[in-house]
Amino acid sequence: MSPRPQPVRQNPASSRVAQELSHVFFDLLMRYKILFAQAVAELGLSAMQARVILCIDQEAPCTMSAVAQELGCGPSNITGLIDKLEARALVERRAHPDDRRIKSLAMTRKGAALRRRLMERLAQPAPWMQALSPDDQRQLVGILRRALELASADA
Questions:
Q1: Hey, what CATH topology would domain 19-124 get?
Q2: Beta strand 103-107 with 62-63: parallel, antiparallel or unpaired?
């Protein structure tokens, strides 16, 4: 039997830095959320509608519950969003091949085209990103990739 890993004890200075990191990251995230809302509004979408479109696999239908889970809510919470996207012919509900009670969501051609435009728009760096030096950009990408890996391991 292998020994249990001991919890890492942080010294007070590193704890303060971690708290500052949390605050700065939150502030940056909130500013990016505003940019995201502006970008999706240019395409005639709400932020939540855009998130739904980004969750749906273009190649294979997915269930409403899978989309809801990815968004962190219940399937009943996304029904209205799907209704609006379906009314715009961006997605369509289909009966699941194995169980007709389960609704699958499929991207329409129009929805796939809008998704591509959305992805192109989201790939444009924010002004603050462009203001960083190339070296700072590379370092930040590396740090954020490691943070994503750690966040994925926690999930």
A1: Arc Repressor Mutant, subunit A (1.10.10)
A2: antiparallel
